[in-house]
Each structure stands twice: as structure tokens, then as C-alpha cells.
Write a structure and sequence with these properties.
Helix 6 packs across helix 8 (about 165-170) and helix 7 crosses helix 8 (about 165-170). It contains nine helices and six strands; from the N terminus they run αααβββαβααβααβα. The chain is of the alpha/beta class.
Length: about 220
């Protein structure tokens, strides 16, 4: 991993996501309304194991588009159907796809304690508006081993008082772990909610040294 990037605390979206936007609201960059090429319409997926259970990863020609927790057959089928509906393309299971190779490699390194930052192109098609703005700020401004309050994150995007809306944005995050919504906590010290379940959030925070590792 690039030590300079780690020191700056840069996440995956500050550079990798910029210029990779597809879909309606172009957020922090991109070309509104541009047509997707054939490569961008391709959507591939696979299920991989991790320290927090099975993860479904999906990618398009623009980048990683979805990370889904607890990818049982039922969760997988629903996630793939939803992707096809939202992206207008039939997702194809392709474990050997080069579009998935780097996300799989970097996630494995993260769970092994060998990587702190993700350097991946991201496809932001599934998120827009305020939610996308908040998630971009989270990805670029809250580095490994740190946390931020919901209200603090709202202030960072120029919306003081929008803590509840930030919580909604975290719940809508299509790219958890890579866009680290597990690092958003309550201002009073509570762990806050998490779409993947509170135990999964505790595991991720323990991996990053924010919480102590469980004894057993």
C-alpha cells in the first residue's frame, strides 16, 4: 500500500470515484447525462468469503458497484435481481472476471490486516444527491482507525442538523466496508446502527483498532 496515501487518510472515492460516475446525479464530478458504453453496461458478480461472512461483490465497467453482507442464497438472489432492475443490465456470475479481481484482492488484504485504504474505481450509479455527497465525504475524509459522529459528518457536507439524514445515507450505502459506514457512530459514544448488523460493525471496528478484539 502507498504509505503517503495512508498518511493522508484518503479513501477509495476521492480519486478512484471521481470521473467514474455513471447514472443520474453526478455528485462530485463526472459528465451529467453521458451515455454508458457497452463496457459500463456489463455487470458481473460473485460471492466471496471473509472474516465477517459471505460477501456479494458486483462490478460494472465503471467500477465496484455493490458489496452485500451475509450473502446467503436468498440475499444473493434478491441483490442480483435488484441490481439488474436498477442498472438495466442482467448481472452475470463471473468469478474469474478481471472486473472483480482487484476488489477481491484488496478486500482479502484488508481483512488480513495488510491494507488500510482501498484504491478501487467505484460505480456510484446506485446512489445520488445528498446520500452520494455524504458517502463521498466519508470515503475520502474518515480514514482507517478513526470514527466520526453522524452530526459531524453532516456538518462536513454543509448540512448541520442533518444527522438523521446522514444515518439514512449510511443505511443506503451500496458499498459498505469499501465506503466505510461502519466508522460512523453516535456522538454520545454509542456504536449506532448498521445495515450488516451490530456484531458485524463491532468486528470491523475491532479490526481497525477502534474497539478491542473479542477475547474469544
Amino acid at each position: 500500500m502507498n504509505a503517503n496515501a495512508q498518511e493522508r487518510g484518503r479513501g477509495p472515492s476521492a480519486d478512484a470515484g471521481r470521473g467514474q460516475d455513471v447514472g443520474g446525479d453526478q455528485g462530485a464530478g463526472g459528465n451529467p447525462g453521458r451515455r454508458r458504453g457497452p463496457e459500463s453496461r456489463q455487470v458481473v458478480w460473485d460471492v466471496v468469503g471473509s472474516d465477517i461472512g459471505l460477501l456479494l461483490l458486483a462490478a460494472s465497467g465503471a467500477g465496484l458497484v455493490t458489496v452485500a453482507f451475509h450473502a446467503t442464497d436468498d440475499v444473493r438472489d434478491k441483490a442480483v435481481d435488484r441490481l439488474g432492475s436498477r442498472l438495466g443490465a442482467e448481472p452475470v456470475r463471473a468469478p474469474e472476471s478481471p472486473l472483480l479481481a482487484e476488489p477481491i484482492r484488496q478486500l482479502a488484504a484488508y481483512f488480513a490486516g495488510e491494507r488500510r485504504d482501498f484504491e478501487l474505481p467505484l460505480d456510484w450509479s446506485l446512489i445520488s444527491g445528498f446520500n452520494r455527497r455524504v458517502l463521498r465525504e466519508l470515503a475520502s475524509g474518515v480514514p482507517f482507525g478513526t470514527v466520526v459522529g453522524y452530526g459531524d459528518l453532516a456538518r462536513r457536507v454543509g448540512q448541520p442538523g442533518a444527522a438523521q439524514a446522514v444515518g439514512i445515507a449510511m443505511g443506503a450505502n451500496p458499498l459498505p466496508v469499501v465506503v466505510p459506514c461502519h466508522r460512523v457512530v453516535e456522538s454520545d459514544g454509542g456504536i449506532g446502527g448498521f445495515g450488516g448488523g451490530l456484531e458485524t460493525k463491532r468486528q470491523l471496528l475491532a479490526l481497525e483498532g477502534v474497539l478491542p478484539q473479542p477475547l474469544f
